[in-house]
Amino acid sequence: MRLIQLIALCLLAACSPAGLNHGDGVYAPGPAGEMDIDGLIVGHRLMAAGEYDLALRAYMRAAMQQGLNVDTLSALGSANLRLGRLGQAEELLRRAVEEDAEFVPAWNNLGVVLMERGQAGEAAEIFRHAYALDNGNSDQIRDNLRLALAKRDDPRYVPQDEDETFRLVRRGAGEYLILSSI
Asked: Which position among 77, 98, 123, 124 has the lowest Cβ density within 10 Å, counted as fewest Cβ atoms?
């Protein structure tokens, strides 16, 4: 009999107008460990680790949170470049430099895409522009410009060692950093 009374009491409590409502809304806990994590930072770390597909996903999350700004467009373009999606990478990086014509990493990375597409002449001009915007402070951009000019002047030019490869750069804490060589 006691069991039947306990069940009836529980059923009556569930039917009460308050239910799970605690005055100012329905009480339900959020997901465990929910935090505002910057998708760009996560994406940059994944790019550095060579996880380009995961980086692209992190950059897409950042774009959904922040919108398509110069940082997210440049990051999406760079990840697409690493995944071999040169057309998408070029389109995104061109949009990034239209968004902010002084954003050096986007200019540099656009130059890398153009080199991959065999357009050494345009790439050399873009590297020259990026190097000028950076006031000559980036060794990576200078090296990219030097290689693009060599390739433009001699299409059969082949870099002699691993140090002579095109490099992507990104913005982070006011610095331009090498992600890795192509």
From this structure: 98
| Nearest by Cα to 149 from 111, 94, 107 | 111
Helix residue ranges, H only, the chain: 2-14, 39-48, 52-66, 70-82, 86-99, 104-116, 120-133, 139-153
Q: Rounded distance, CA 131 to CA 139, Å? A: 9
Which range of residues forms the domain containing residue 76?
37-181
Quick one: how far is CA 49 from the chain centroid? 13
Per residue in 59-87, pLDDT (tens digit) is: 999 999 999 999 999 999 999 999 999 99
| CA neighbours closer than 13 Å in the CB half-sphere of residue 141 | 27
Between vectors from CA 61 to CA 56 and to CA 64, what angle results, nearest 5°?
125
Instruction: Examine residue 22 and state whether it is found in any structural domain, yes or no.
Output: no
CATH, residue 177? 1.25.40.10
174 HSE (CA, 13 A, CB side) = 0
Residue with tokens 């930072």: 41
Domains contained in the chain, number: 1
Instruction: Quote the pTM value.
Output: 0.70
Residues 8-65 have pLDDT tens digits of: 555 555 554 554 444 555 544 445 444 578 999 999 999 999 999 999 999 999 999 9
Could you give the angle at the alpha carbon of 174 between the alpha carbons of 150 and 121, nearest 5°? Answer: 20
Q: 21 has which bridge partners?
A: 26
